[in-house]
Amino acid sequence: MSQDDGRTGQGATGTMHKPPQQQSRRSDSGGSELVTQGGKTAIADVVVAKIASMAARQVGGVYAMGAGMSRALGSMRERMPGMSGDTTQGVQVQVGERQAAVDIDVVVEYGVSIPDLGNAIRRNVSNEIEHMCGLEVVEVNISVDDVHLEDEDEDKDRQPEEPRVR
C-alpha cells in the first residue's frame, strides 16, 4: 500500500498517479463533504471560518477583527480564567456543496489604504480556503467597522485626570 503526501505526484513507492475525482456535497452537520473514490472528507463551517479569520489577520494593516460589541465581549472573555478568545470573531461563512461565501468585519490601522487592504484580504482569504478546503470562494465581503489610532492605546493606559470642577 503506497503512502501519498496528498498532492499529485509520487507516493512512497515512487509511482505517478492522478488524484481521484472529487465530488462535493453538503453534509447534515453544517459543513461540506468532499467525496472521492477512497472515501469522504467532511469540512465543518467553523473550520472554514477559522481559516478565513487567520488569513485575514495575516494581512498587514488589519488591527482587529469584529464589530464594536463583539470585540468588547471578546476582550472580556479573554480576561476570564479558563476562557480564550473567539478565533472566528468578525467572520461569518456560508458553505455550500462546492462553494463558500465569507463576510468579514475588520478594524484597520490608520493610514492604510482601505481599498488595497480589502483586495489583499480577499485574495488571501480566497487562496487559503481554496487551498486548504478545495472550495471555490465566490465572494468575500468586508466591512470596515473602525480605524485604530495609536492615541487610543495611550488613552487606555493613562490615569484619569483630576476633575476641573468640584
Automatic annotation (TrEMBL):
Basic and acidic residues: compositionally biased ranges: 156-166
Residue stretches of biased makeup (Low complexity): 21-32
Disordered, as annotated region: 1-36, 146-166
One Pfam assignment: Asp23
Family, per entry: Belongs to the asp23 family.
Protein name as annotated: Asp23/Gls24 family envelope stress response protein
Record organism: Actinomadura sediminis
